[in-house]
Amino acid sequence: MNPATREQLMKVSTATLCTALFKRGLRNQFIQDVRPLNSGLPNMVGEAFTLRYMPAREDLNPISVFLDRDHPQRKAVEQCPEGAVLVIDSRKDARAASAGGILVTRLMKRGVAGVVTDGGFRDSPDIAKLGFAAYHHRPSAPTNLTLHQAIDINVPIGCGDAPVFPGDVIVGDAEGVIVIPAHMADEVAAEAVEMTVFEDFVQEKVLEGRSILGLYPPTEEQSRTDFATWRQAKGR
Questions:
Q1: What is the pLDDT along the chain (236 residues), one digit of tens a residue?
Q2: Is residue 48 within 8 Å of 179, Cβ to Cβ?
Q3: Which letter, b or e, does each residue of 97-123 get, where b requires 16 or more Cβ atoms within 10 Å of its Cβ?
């Protein structure tokens, strides 16, 4: 990812990014029903590295499978690149965990930017204390083998009804997680920064008591002039 794009995406909200993608005809990029374990962290930004689960078959998922160094869940944790986001397709099923505190800690120590699942994490109180970006649907104590069989890594997946391709740009904030197609990340990030500056201006004016009519969106010349003056004064 372009370092400038990463820096821009650290400063914008998933809500603004949703609007920028909507303008381009993309309506299904927000991962549904996931939330941060720690909402006080900076934005999570990184390229997607994926892990896919399928329904577990009992004879193939005894606890001993974790001794296999080629187990896809273990491989994903050890191979997810520094600065990337591990995105897990758990079929929106949080009845068993997608991962737990030890694996998430390993991701953090390896320099991964964050982890997202449309299922749940076990050890979630411990994960919440790590200062590491982690998003899930809800806590889940049972081990993943109870219901999930890790079957593949770094392939296209669905996560919370959003399509995720390896290398897509993942952004998470206190509200949730959005997936930006890799080929449009630079232009979307740049537009989102401009949108954020304007929305900050609008918020300030609304707090002063101004009507949104003619202001948001700016359909009057006075609004555009006021914005230009405000922007110059703020140095933005």
A1: 999 999 999 999 999 999 999 999 999 999 999 999 999 999 999 999 999 999 999 999 999 999 999 999 999 999 999 999 999 999 999 999 999 999 999 999 999 999 999 999 999 999 999 999 999 999 999 999 999 999 999 999 999 999 999 999 999 999 999 999 999 999 999 999 999 999 999 999 999 999 999 999 988 888 899 999 999 999 98
A2: yes
A3: bbbbbebbbebbeeebbbbbbbbbbbb
SS3 50: strand
* Residue 168 near residue 149, CB atoms below 8 Å: no
Token pair in block for residue 57? 């078959």
pTM for the whole structure: 0.95
How many angstroms separate the CA atoms of 16 and 149, rounded? 36
